[in-house]
Amino acid sequence: MTASATPLKPQRATVYRKGQQVVCTGSAAFIPPPAPSPATFTTFLLSLQPIQWCLDLVVVANEGLDLVEALRTGLSASVIAISDG
Q: Are 14 and 24 within 8 A, CB to CB?
């Protein structure tokens, strides 16, 4: 058996042996690595393109840290959300 060149666009493959043959039953491109996490909550909100229409007037004070702290310390009963929809 001789070595071959590394393929330019490798793909995953599902294979099995059948006697002396190798049978490929399917292949697909590799899944790209996930995008990096947004640095801030506001950056995350701005990345939500499908629902951008409902975020145009959203105001997030202190990057949401006050809300996170209230939920973390058990003050969630004092958190109030207001919406017209």
A: yes
Both structure tokens of 16: 């099995």
Residue with tokens 């059948």: 18
The pTM is what? Answer: 0.42
Looking from the CA of 15 toward its CB, the CA atoms found within 13 Å total 10
pLDDT in tens, 12-35: 899 999 999 999 999 888 888 888
Residue with tokens 């969630």: 76
Cite the DSSP H helix spans in the chain. Answer: 41-46, 65-72
Residues 69-78 have pLDDT tens digits of 888 888 767 7
Question: Helix, strand, coil: what percent of the chain each, to 5?
Answer: 30, 20, 50
